[in-house]
């Protein structure tokens, strides 16, 4: 009897308490998902309405575990966005409907603007007035940027008739609260997910399930085995760059470049993989970005969901490349500044956006003024890759550093105190860390065709092979991961 009471108490505490570490690769989520998925498979054979309600209920529970009471923002934004978009489309076409569109977008943006940018705005205001005011730190709801951008894309696509009609409330609620996408996306358009939600009938097919399992395995390797391990030294460098040698600082920058890719692409793999297990096919969010030979190509490969969102809903509405060369440069630059602000209300993110904006403008200018005349051979490709990767890594310093002093100290140490003696010392002190970083970079150089071949081999292998691979990876995650799995970098955005 005592055991039953303890079990009941533990279950009640789990269901009623938020968890700051809650994410797709934590063991409490995995256990919850196994139970959820078993019931989902059974429900999916019957009425689809009940399946949708069940998924929505689990998604709201997922949001509660991640955000606590702030999870109520999600259903409030969902209902208001759906209703206002439908009301907007009933307005007379022309100026009145355009005003309605602006009001709906502003309404969808207000919670994001309030929770993410109020303190930053107040700090700027009081710095200008030279007061000692220090606003209280405001808790940012996890994933608010991602579901806000999904809501805006739905509204704009309905207005432009890119998506043909407004969805029913239950379908739209499923779309905006779908739990794999809640914490860190990827930002998914209505035209991708909603038709699957509206028409799905027992669509959990074998090939899609095995693809999902492959992505989950890749996500666990990237996040729990690689990103979390190399983050330990990266944190030391960025917390106190002056305590490390110039070479150690350089390795910290290289390590963070690797970490942020494996952390975020690992989460994307997990999210897309979990959705695939449930029968929903989402688009890839990364395509080997560190193989890019220029910054424009990098943004076609990195965080594709966000880069295409800014392209379609900011860059093109500003005029894109249709209004002359100078305007094209300005639009690219502005889009990257907004992208920096989207990542966080901090001058450091603005600097990161400015650096990428400048880099994009320089590449577009060179491309328009004879860059294509340079011979396309392995030497120029090697130089192009080195410049691109080096510039992206430089920008990551400002993305990761807590303040400008930390960033400038780190860069100054790299430029003025680096030595071969320090390199040898570092190798002796951190051999495993360096090996993981180098192997991770080498893995990133795999050709996309080879990766797809490997994925196909896994999908078509026997169930015993799949089970063994999955069991080995899970055991490695349990044995080799850090004491507690570190939060995903992109949950703060």
TrEMBL record:
GO terms for cellular component: plasma membrane. It is a multi-pass membrane protein. It is found in: Cell membrane. The keyword Cell membrane applies. Keywords: Acyltransferase, Cell membrane, Membrane, Transferase, Transmembrane, Transmembrane helix. GO terms for biological process: alginic acid biosynthetic process. Its main location: membrane. The keyword Transmembrane helix applies. It comes from the Bacteria. One of its GO terms (molecular function) is acyltransferase activity. The chain crosses the membrane at residues 21-41, 53-78, 99-118, 138-157, 169-188, 208-226, 333-362, 382-402, 423-443, 463-480. Signal peptide: none annotated. Belongs to the membrane-bound acyltransferase family. This is D-alanyl-lipoteichoic acid acyltransferase DltB, MBOAT superfamily. The lineage of its organism: Bacteria, Pseudomonadati, Bacteroidota, Bacteroidia, Bacteroidales.
